[in-house]
Amino acid sequence: MSNVVEHLRNMVRIPSVSSLSNRPIVEYAGETLRKAQWQIRQMSYKDAAGVEKVNLIAVPPGQDAGEPSAELAFVCHTDTVPYSSDWTGATNPLVKDGMLHGCGACDVKGFLACLLTAIDETSKFAHGLRLILTADEEVGCVGMAHLIASGRIRSKRAVVGEPTSLHPARAGKGYYLAEITVFGEEAHSALPQKGKSAIYRAARLITGIEELASQLAKEQHTFFRPGFTTINVGTIRGGTAKNVVPGQCSFQLEWRPIPGQPIDTVPTAVSRVAEKLREFDPTFFWKMHTTRQQGGFEMSASCELVRSMEALTGRAAISIPFGSEASLLADVADEIVVFGPGDMQSAHSSREFVPVSELNEAVAILRSLMAIG
User: Which residues pair with 254 in a beta bridge?
Assistant: First the structure.
């Protein structure tokens, strides 16, 4: 069994959903790094539930982990999304038909296994390397935000681990999330004229948002599939009882903007929809609270890192339709590529797997990036 498969099997066995501390995964990686005589610096914080989370910065022998500036940073998050209780293989990795199955196998412990294996197998490292492991990416890139706020990261180039089937991704959509609350007036359901249903009002607002989504689809960015800003109403809740006209209804609105689109495009458009409803119902009252704001990123096709990764992988650069830490790193890195084994289409599900052949190929690519010459 190859080293990369063994590393990945070991890490899949360690539960690391975002609600748990990621310290066990960080410590596992730390063992490999210490054996390779890398210098390690850990920074911890507590999440909203009081759970310890750990970020890690590591550098090869003879380099300074306390120096923020780097030539090339490898970035990898350490948490996974939750998994179903009936997925018995979530933390029991299985290799079958050339695929390694398990929670986090492709998102994104597979990339971390490749990094650790490349470090194991490299003897002389290029100057200015950084390995950055982060917490809480799956719940809003919280660990990365802590690192950036601390001023501990500044890199000329950065490779961010995400499943891209080994294509270098030079552009990615942003990710925004908002909580919208619509208000009404409670009344007995036998006397609905005495109240105003917040659920009916929310339904009208959501219908308007659905129409807005169709309008946004007309603004195309041809490098993406789909090539427009997507909108989704993911959850909705309202009312207190079956026989009460509901006084309040809330729903989550998520949108993934194409790079270059003004950050207020969707909130402004939703406000216009609400104002139109208010024209017909002056008592229509609502509020919108944005809980996550993460812009997209886009590198030029001609930038050095993109060209280098295309040459090393033998694959053309692509875009990704999902959010990643690359969006935050765009403020502190000159050139960014998202890259890794596996396909996001299998992630976040009990179907999650990564091709072993891609793991092995990724190790060779990462070694080429890390090594002198």
Answer: 177, 232
